[in-house]
Amino acid sequence: MPSAFILGIESSCDETAAAVVRSGxxxxxxxxxxxxATHQPYGGVVPxxxxxxxxxxxxxxxxxxxxxxxxxxxxxxxxxxxxxxxxAGALLVGISYAKALAFALDKPLIAVNHLEGHIHSVxxxxxxxxxxxxxxxxLALVVSGGHTHLYLAAEKDDAWTYENIGHTRDDAxxxxxxxxxxxxxxGYPGGPVISHLAAYGNPQAVKFPVxxxxxxxxxxxxxxxxxxxxxxxxxxxxKTAALRYVEKNDMRAAIxxxxxxxxxxxxxxxxxxxxxxDKRVLDLVASFQWAMVADLTRKTLAAAREYQVAxxxxxxxxxxxxxxxxxxxxxxxxxxxxxxxxxRPLSTDNAAMIAAAAYxxxxxxxxxxxxxxxxxxxxxx
Length: 381
Ligand code: KG4
Ligand code: ZN
Prior knowledge:
By secondary structure, this protein is α/β, with parallel strands linked by helices. The protein is 44% helix and 17% strand. The chain is built from 13 helices and ten strands. It has helices spanning 36-39, 47-68, 88-105, 114-128, 173-183, 190-198, 236-248, 252-263, 270-275, 279-306, 322-334, 344-347, 352-363, and strands spanning 5-10, 15-22, 26-34, 78-84, 109-113, 138-143, 148-156, 159-166, 311-315, 339-340. It is globular. Residues 114, 118, 144, 316-317, 349 line the site of zinc ion.
């Protein structure tokens, strides 16, 4: 089988990314232009600003990805792009550009689900390391700013299928990190700053409630009652508990002072944040992270046992978290379950994962029609 070079394009949220991947198994180039500096003053992603920044970045980012791969527009075999889920206006920038390229160059166009991309980032890197025999069934936890979803992934003759066996009922795990960081005046995104500060606090100092899902989700009402259990998550309670703790302990004034202080610095570093946090804040973030990690690992491993999976993937932006990785490794080892993560650059949003997920579709000639559109709420099946 000759090598196929796929140009991937990703613009679903606040990263404009392009990459060239060879046959779903080698990252030839991987360029990510982050919009963090644009959104930081607002404490979260502003959709209109995201679309504008994607428009600015898309052409230079794609050019750079091709140049670093020593490819030209003409030498790649296909163009792959994220169709959804994500911000509609942001997705449309990548999709319009990918369509224009595919049309002008007369190349196949492949539409990829962003969540499938996160799963394929693990597969891509395992193949790159020479690991070609992962055991099925695979359970994948996709844990990011927009999702906390569990999928059973299967492959037959290059066709991949996914069964969702759990999801968050409210906030995603990454969203909880982002909201708690915003609450504490620590800026955006919350995951990296909280994981850095947590190392200086006591994770047992504050007790957070554990979420127990006693009721079926309204979305699952159509399913037969004897179907296998769902393993759902919920993180809005933990965020509210953090807010109550702040109010009960009169932390507001100190938080506002920190917020104002950090706003004076053009690009505050993690050390800038640390220098402005007292023990109470450090204990709070350490305890919050501990509770998040405990809940994610406990529910995911319960699902892994119930479905008797052979392999576990943990992927998405929150999978960059050190404590989460360590805890998963420790707990999975206890039940002899191999667990795989992407490298940190491929944990958060990137286009290499989109190009990798497109490769099986390329082999199956599963190409997108020129009139396909962005789907903000696209489900993975
Ligand atoms: O996958 P991603 O780049 O974008 C989405 O698809 O959402 O994930 C971004 C999310 C953000 O919520 C960010 O706070 C979180 O991943 N994140 C982390 C860490 N690094 C990024 N959360 C916890 N610990 C980290 N080290
Ligand atoms: Zn993502």
